[in-house]
């Protein structure tokens, strides 16, 4: 792997994921400009300094009848006029893809400061229509057309695979859900921070907690969320200036230590075949998710989960977090339940997963999730995560997934350990 | 500007733009796989060699209810499994954006061989619905909602600006249209190659050639097109191997000499203000289009149009080609008509524009146009453009535009002059 220039993360801004922008009478443009406002204010960066803008967005064409979101950002300020802009998409991994592209441009030496905006407005449509839109992240004609809420069913199938291969028990999924909701209560921007939720509720079944796709019940699902999360990425030259301006040392500024990006076959049938083959060989059952993670470890020059202080993972459903726990290497294949039972993934545990509350607790504005995850790791490794701070965190990882574990993007962000 | 590593263009494949895939009962997946088939066959590259896949697409979510097209490409062959994939969008400039990202990844040293796929299926809907979908490339709520065919009107306004500032005459637009249709007759993949079209028709007005937006008549419009265009980009290491395998010299393989990428304010009202201000100062009236072009010249280390042998430009309407002629520097501001009258833009002229027939003659499958343009320059500078060959061409430029001249992306591709 090529030795690349270091790219720094300077922080950013996240909108309150509990907001319903349509009810406020605000559209995606309003969200975009509020998020940009917040990001400039939070970092003290002037729009004039930005050299390139990348937008991660899944499907504003469907939810908001608006494409060309990169260009839309230029309207924020005359100072942004003429900048290169673009929008990037890989379903629910769109935010991470935008981050990958921005980082690469800086590595290639073209720009020193990139603004990366993850954004999605979803409450513009009813849940059935929204479920159908999300179906375009799968192979729509084969896996989603005419299926009500295709994604709980697809990730329910991931649960079935775990049940068949490893005897997955529902109580472990309920614990994942419970922890995410608990963590979210400490996150002032989490969608569910004021919701009533408990382990008893998660364990219940039937009218209070309907099954929506195989083993997946309502409490196993991430939320439908309106929101945006902005991060700034910078070259070493810019980061040095920025550190000086803020009276910080460069080594206290987080940087992208490593990343991985791998795509699985889009059809879940093929993923299932791969899972059975992997099990036979004692490998992790989602080989491409595993590859994205191990590539990121290699690039970061770290050994594995023992060198991480936290993970912000893509718990679109509890089954995807269940898979992530072991695929990050915290346990051998099929043994994620041990880490759950031992409390390893709780804040204060061996390797906290989703201290922010994740997609289940914090919310899942599809195109914003990838940048929100990186922003949360930034908060953790700079000791600014408030109530959900993982004590002493220096290095964190993100896993952002598009489709049914189809696109897998991992980032490892950290500061130098003293 | 950073001195970047050289990135080579190895050719690719274009589908026949005259085809109507819906009438053939084929969907976007079929188009994707046919285009990939063609590209592997045309270049002799094996799928196993590809290291990254980028898709340029405007709005498959709307036209084909399918997102996540990057991932869709992986299904083409087991050999592509696990590759990094993504889709990029900037309205009608999506193909060029995908190309920019792929090039940057190679420059940064991450990959040696990238497959870039521009694709759009558009004949899945009636023309009114399609016109509405295209409205999402503008600021939909302000410029397109409830407007029938918003884009001819927006580019009609560009014509009005030229009329007011420089006394544009319709006959010059008719000549642009005529040349594009004429050139297209020589292009075996052009959508209009068998259409009846003449200068008389272009000059006519009324029921045979309706005005659809100010000065814009039917003959001034590009086509609604189904199509894909694939190109391969490679590092010098890979290009050397490739040249050797094909018994060619590396210096005969085209490379990306320069590029430019600039975004104008999305609203045409603001562009109009800028145009008036620019006119006063004797500058070109689309300053961001001009910037993309001059940035590309700088990066390519060339002086301007005198060092180019051809241009493939974004003639979504004749007015955008009219602007491009002068913005490339072929004439001073407001004098594009001189180049048209002098025959400069014809094949055989001083600087042929759109020998392929462009978007008007060859067709405009939105997300594929940017890659099709680069593929056409590749054909020209390798002397393989057949009937529409510009004799002795060594260096060509492309201009791919998103929205109403909002996103502007320029590529300069060439081989070394002996």
Explain this structure to me?
Two copies of one chain form a homodimer. Helix content of chain A is 39%, strand content 16%. By secondary structure, the first copy, chain A, is an alpha/beta fold. Chain A has a domain at 7-125 and 224-245: 3-Layer(aba) Sandwich (Peroxisomal Thiolase, Chain A, domain 1), CATH 3.40.47.10. A five-stranded mixed beta sheet of chain A has the order 1-7-4-2-3. In chain A, strands 8-11-10-9 form a four-stranded mixed beta sheet. Chain A has a two-stranded antiparallel ribbon with strand order 5-6. In chain A, a hairpin with a 4-residue loop joins strand 10 (395-402) and strand 11. At the A-B interface, helix 3, strand 3, helix 4, strand 8 and helix 12 of A face helix 3, strand 3, helix 4, strand 8 and helix 12 of B.
Write the layout of secondary structure elements.
The structure is a homodimer of 418-residue chains.
Chain A: E1 8-14, H1 28-43, E2 52-56, H2 60-64, H3 69-74, E3 85-89, H4 94-107, E4 113-120, H5 127-134, H6 140-144, H7 150-166, H8 170-184, H9 199-203, E5 211-213, E6 216-217, E7 227-234, H10 236-245, E8 255-263, H11 268-280, H12 287-300, E9 310-312, H13 318-327, H14 336-341, H15 358-361, H16 369-381, E10 395-402, E11 407-414
Parallel strand pairs in A: 2-3, 2-4, 9-10
Antiparallel strand pairs in A: 1-7, 4-7, 5-6, 8-11, 10-11
Helix pairs in contact in A: 4-16, 7-11, 8-13
């Amino acid at each position: 792997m090529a030795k690349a220039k270091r790219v720094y993360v300077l922080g950013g801004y996240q909108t309150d994921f509990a907001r319903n922008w349509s009810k406020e009478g605000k559209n995606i443009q309003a969200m975009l400009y509020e998020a940009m406002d917040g990001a400039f204010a939070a970092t003290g960066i002037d729009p004039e300094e930005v050299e390139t803008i990348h937008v991660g967005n899944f499907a504003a064409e469907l939810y908001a009848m608006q494409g060309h979101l990169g260009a839309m950002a230029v309207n924020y300020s005359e100072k942004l006029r003429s900048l290169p802009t673009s929008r990037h998409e890989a379903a629910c991994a769109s935010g991470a893809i935008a981050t990958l592209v921005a980082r690469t441009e800086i590595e290639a030496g073209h720009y020193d400061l990139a603004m990366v905006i993850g954004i999605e407005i979803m409450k513009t449509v009813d849940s059935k229509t929204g479920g159908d839109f999300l179906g375009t992240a799968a192979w729509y004609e084969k896996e989603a057309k005419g299926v009500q809420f295709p994604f709980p069913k697809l990730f329910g199938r991931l649960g079935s695979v775990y049940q068949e291969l490893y005897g997955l028990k529902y109580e472990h999924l309920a614990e994942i859900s419970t922890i995410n909701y608990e963590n979210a209560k400490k996150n002032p921007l989490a969608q569910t921070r004021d919701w009533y939720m408990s382990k008893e509720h998660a364990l219940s079944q039937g009218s209070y907690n309907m099954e929506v796709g195989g083993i997946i019940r309502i409490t196993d699902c991430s939320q439908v969320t309106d929101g945006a999360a902005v991060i700034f990425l910078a070259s070493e030259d810019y980061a040095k200036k920025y550190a000086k301006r803020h009276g910080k040392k460069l080594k206290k500024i987080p940087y992208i230590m490593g990343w991985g990006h791998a795509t699985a076959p889009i059809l879940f049938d093929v993923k299932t075949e791969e899972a059975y083959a992997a099990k036979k060989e004692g490998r992790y059952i989602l080989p491409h998710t595993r590859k994205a993670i191990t590539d990121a470890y290699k690039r970061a020059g770290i050994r594995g989960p023992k060198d991480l202080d936290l993970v912000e993972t893509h718990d679109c459903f509890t089954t995807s977090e269940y898979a992530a726990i072991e695929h990050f290497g915290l346990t051998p294949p099929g043994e994620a339940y041990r880490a759950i039972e031992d409390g390893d993934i709780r804040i204060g545990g061996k390797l906290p997963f989703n201290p922010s509350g994740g997609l289940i607790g914090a919310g899942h504005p599809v195109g914003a999730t990838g940048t929100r995850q990186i922003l949360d790791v930034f908060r953790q490794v700079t000791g600014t995560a408030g109530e959900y701070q993982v004590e002493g965190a220096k290095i964190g990882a993100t896993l952002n997934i598009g489709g049914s574990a189809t696109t897998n993007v991992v980032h490892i962000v950290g500061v130098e350990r003293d």
